[in-house]
Amino acid sequence: MVAVLIGTIGSGLLFSAGLAVPIIGFASAFIAPVPLGFTRIRGGSAAAGFSAILTTLLLAVLFSPVIGAWYAVQCGLIGLIIPELALRNFGLFRSMLWTTAAAAGLTLVLFGVMTIAGNINPQLFIQKEISTSISQAAKLYEQQSGLTPQDLEVLQEGMQTVSRLLLQLYPALITINLGLISAVTMLLFRRLAAKAGTELQTSPFASFRAPALLIWPLIAAGFSMLVPTTLISTPAFNLVVLLAMIYFLQGLAVVFAFCERTTFASTLKMMLAIVLLTQPYLAGVAVIIGIFDFWGDFRTPRSKQDENL
């Protein structure tokens, strides 16, 4: 019961912080599934499941059924699946992949239920939310920036472009967000498991490699974006973004593998993180490295000298 209470209160408070304080909530929502992992270690699968259901019901009563469903998808399901797969030695990346797929599938089911039972059009709902957020950001920037009328006009055009792009890519962006939450949950659950005396079998990030056949859907989706109909080009665009994220991770793994061959690997990794945060366009370079690693196999040392670099 103590483990159930810790999982319920901890996960519920962290998720609720995102609703009450958006700035703090952006970070707290990413770690809201972690208390369920603690419950899984201390109380078992049944206790973790009961804690997730109890938290979902409490949020639905305190806020709304939509908030409860949102928690179930974004936190409850991830907080249950990640610990279970990790403890069953599914591996780091397979666990995150299956968890993200399950959460994305449940999100699709909930959108369908909203459409049928609630007489709500998810497309219009998301469009309204995006437009409202963009408008609020634009007004805030206009009030505090002191830009000229010409600059404000350029800003508004840019905001409209971002709004249209977000409306096109929200399926991919939602899936990527679920993947990031799964990754954070996995990393923190590994620490919890280690403190509890349970060592998980995980491979280092530098060894991450996307399945070889994944390159062909990327190529097909890239060409499909050229088709002059949104029924084909928009899903293809979303698929390209999702696969580009996977190859971005593979590109980072390649760079990390090179860093680890040096005597100051930690410093290089920290510098790389700073560069990516300050120069986001370099993420495209990592994507290209990840794609061409399919043919180049960059992580295999070419000589004894390279291996001892």
Description:
The protein has 309 residues and is an all-alpha fold. The protein has two domains: 1-117 and 171-201, Orthogonal Bundle (Arp2/3 complex 21 kDa subunit ARPC3), CATH 1.10.1760; 204-309, no CATH class. Helix content is 81%, strand content 0%. It has helices spanning 2-20, 22-31, 34-43, 45-62, 65-87, 92-117, 122-145, 149-195, 215-224, 230-259, 265-278, 283-296, 304-307. Helix 1 runs antiparallel to helix 2 and helix 4 packs antiparallel against helix 5. The relative contact order is 0.07. The model is unreliable at 303-309 (pLDDT under 50).
Can you give me a brief rundown of this structure?
Helix content is 81%, strand content 0%.
- Helix tally? 13
- What low-confidence regions span 5 or more consecutive residues with pLDDT below 50? 303-309
**Broad shape:** globular
What percent of residues are in strands?
Answer: under 5%
Examine the coordinates and then state which fold CATH places here, giving the name of the CATH topology of the largest domain: Arp2/3 complex 21 kDa subunit ARPC3
Mean pLDDT, as a whole number? 82
The CATH architecture of the largest domain can be given as Orthogonal Bundle
Number of domains: 2
Q: Which structural class is indicated by helix and strand composition?
A: mainly alpha
Please give the radius of gyration in angstroms: 22 Å
| Major sheet attributes | none
Please provide the ordered H/E string of secondary-structure elements: HHHHHHHHHHHHH
CATH class of the largest domain: Mainly Alpha
Count all strands and give the number. 0
Terminal Cα span: 53 Å
